[in-house]
Amino acid sequence: MTHSGYQRSKLGPCGWLIGAVLLLAISSVGLLPAQEVDERDRRVLPSGTYLFRGLLDAMGLQARYPEELNQLPAEQVLIVLFGYSHDWPDREMIQRVTRRTLAGGGALLLAGEEPAQLQACFPRPTGLSISRERVFSLNPLACFDHYPGSPYPVARPSDVAGLGELLRVLPRTATNHPAALTLTRPSHYAQTVLAGFPSHCRLGADDQTLAENQGLLVVGSSPDPQRPYRTAILSDPSILTNQMLALADPQGNGPQNLLFAHRLIQWLQAPTNRSYCVFMDYGRPRDRFYPLITPPPLPIPPLPNPLDPQLQAKLTNAANHALTNLEDQDGFNRRIIGEPGDRRRFFAFLRTVAILTAMLTLLVFLYRFWAARHKPEPRYNAPKHAAPPHTRDPIQAGRSTPPLSETARLVLRELFRDQGAPTIEEAEPLPPLAVTGQHSRTLKKNIQHLWRLLTMTHTDKDIPQKDLESMIASVWNAAQAGQWRFLPTGGEQ
Fold first, then answer.
1. Mean pLDDT across the stretch 240-256?
2. Residue 435 has what DSSP assignment?
3. Burial annotation 284-312 (CB, 10 A radius, 16+ → b, else e)
4. Which of 269, 381, 408, 430 is the most interior residue, by most CB within 10 Å?
5. Which of 311-315, 346-350, 394-398, 433-437 is predicted least confidently?
6. Rounded to whole angstroms, how far apart are CA atoms 283 and 86?
7. Band of pLDDT at residue 412, cut at 50, 70 and 90
8. What is the mean pLDDT of the chain?
9. Can you give 235-292 as a three-state secondary structure string?
10. pTM for the whole thing?
């Protein structure tokens, strides 16, 4: 029986198996070239950029094609032209995209060592050129691995906006047969030579001396916040290759190319924190960055100066604002007595105040009691001819009678000599006295006491300072009246 027209056929198990094999073969043929390219792209060659692209990925940059720039804001784009040369494919398209990105406020890192048309990458004239000759050093000891073709660059003073401490202190960077950038005149996109070569370096086979406007790295930055472009032109791309970035020493003794690359990219990302990157690797666009390495740690920022007037003003304003908010919310009263109507917390506060007051009163009472029982002795300056403390009479040392001043001693010595005292020495006994008048007994006792005080002998009588002064005055007046004198021989009368 025959049927005309289309008839639907059914496949058996063998048909499904043959179809699956054919589909797998077709898909594998289509995937082989892509897999081969991917593996070749991931190989870490000495002159490759795998490590540098890993650094870009660690710093938050996403790979994009040049054709995608029309859909991205220019101020968020960083263009990297690695190994820039005049024989790149699609060179004019890349130059046109780069000029448009810089005009819109983007960033550019151009690393090339061959004389090429640098001007075509910038919207305005720059006055930049790259030498055909290579730089070498006359002092191999100042080069990486003592090789004359790898001199260490030195930092040049610069006032480019936004550099800060990222590139002012140039890390120890190893080069590899670098060329020399020449900046004939400063311009918008090439303002200053940031990294130069030491004085012992020469250029070319003729040993030409390098000028001040020749160096390794030229940078430029925009002062306009509306178009925050930044540019960096490097005359030695090998600084950023795998073999150079792998030279990083954890102890900081060897080359620090990785730290240099990190600081350079960080400066180019600022001030808009650019997040997109068009990476042209010797004319070939890289559409992906593989996560491989982490950026080196940044230097610890210095501590703020507490004497800075601006810092003090900010702290004062912040403290005043916090206190004002606390007062507006009645924070002090709420912390002490609680919310309105909270009698339990209010009584707890009163109890705490009463306990603290009682403790303070007890401490004051104990201090006064101790001070009354341990009254300190009066301090005074002993005269030079006074006896040492260990030779003084212990009974006299415990007395409260004040010592005689130097003036009183001079007055008494002169008085006693005028009245006939033979000698007045320390521990000298009282000479014989002749005392007359109505109050001869009191006068005699006063003379004896003053004599003992003058000669540092024992006395058993405490006399206040005011009474001592009146005693000296009475003895002086009695001597002037002729009521007493010392006898040359004999006993007391």
1. 78
2. E
3. eebeebeeebebbeeeeeeeeeeeeeeee
4. 269
5. 394-398
6. 10
7. confident
8. 78
9. CCHHHHCHHHHCCCCCCCCCCCHHHHHHHHHHHHHCCCCCCEEEEEECCEEECCCCCC
10. 0.53
Q: Are 120 and 249 in contact (CB under 8 A)?
A: no
Q: 88-102, 155-169, 378-392: which has the minimum mean pLDDT?
A: 378-392
Rounded Cα distance between 262 and 52, Å, is 9
Partner residues linked to 77 by β-bridges: 276
CA distances from 170 to 12, 190, 301, 478 (A): 73, 19, 17, 97
SS3 458: coil
Give the integer Cα–Cα distance in Å for 335 and 125: 69
Structural tokens at position 460: 């058993």
Count of residues making up the chain: 493
Nearest to 155 by CA among 117, 95, 195: 195
Q: Are 160 and 194 in contact (CB under 8 A)?
A: yes
pLDDT (tens digit, 9 = 90+) per residue, 437-490?
877 888 888 888 888 888 776 554 556 776 788 888 888 888 888 888 888 754
Where is pLDDT greater, at 327 or 198?
Answer: 198
Domain regions of the chain by residue span: 40-286, 389-486
Q: Using the CB atoms, write b or e for 148-160: b if 16+ within 10 Å.
A: bbbbbbbebeeeb
Give the Cβ contact number of residue 2 at 10 Å.
Answer: 4
The residue among 472, 462, 338, 456 whose CA lies nearest residue 393 is 456
Name the token pair of 201: 């370096």
Could you give the percent of the chain with pLDDT greater than 90?
24
Question: Residue 52's Cα: distance from chain center in Å?
Answer: 31
The SS3 assignment for 32 reads helix
How far, in Å, CA of 261 to CA of 248, rounded?
A: 11
The answer to whether 269 and 59 are in contact (CB under 8 A) is: yes
DSSP category for residue 151: B
- DSSP-derived letter for residue 307 is T
